[in-house]
Design a protein that fits this description.
This protein has four helices and two strands; from the N terminus they run βααααβ. The protein is 42% helix and 5% strand. Strands 1-2 form a two-stranded parallel sheet. The chain has one domain. The relative contact order is 0.26. The model has no long low-confidence stretch (mean pLDDT 89).
Length: 77
């Protein structure tokens, strides 16, 4: 089973594990989360990345569960 990446908690290295996402896009995701809060779903992630369609592989690995306010910060974040 492929590990899922928690989009709203993952650090830069973990986001790169999605595959098909560039370092610049990872920074865009992190900046969006910081400025606007959690990313709700694949449609919003696509919009954050400039409207490009997301691959099935990205959508399969992405977990959009919101960050819990009591959860520890992701390692390396």
């Amino acid at each position: 089973m492929t590990n899922r990446v928690r989009i709203n908690l993952a650090n830069a290295g973990e986001l790169l594990e999605l595959g098909g996402v560039s370092e610049a896009e990872v920074e865009t995701i992190i900046r969006f989360r910081s400025d606007h809060g959690p990313i709700a779903d694949g449609e919003q992630l696509s919009a954050v990345l400039g409207g490009r369609p997301l691959t099935a592989a990205i959508l399969e690995r992405a977990d959009f569960a919101p960050a819990e306010t009591t959860a520890p910060e992701a390692p390396g974040a």
